[in-house]
Amino acid sequence: MVSMTASHRATRAHSFNSAAAQYAANRPAYPPALFDAVEDLAGHPLSGARVADIGAGTGIATALLHARGADVIAVEPGDGMAAQFRSAHPGIPIVRGDGNTLPLTTASVDFVTYAQAWHWTDPAQAVPEAVRVLRPGGALALWWNTDALDVPWIAEAAGRTERFFGVNVAAENRNVNARVADPTGNLDFTDRVVRWSRRIPVDTHLANLGSYSIFLVLGEEASAAFLAEERKHLLRTFPDGIVEEVYDAILLLATTP
Question: pTM of the prediction?
Answer without folding.
Answer: 0.90
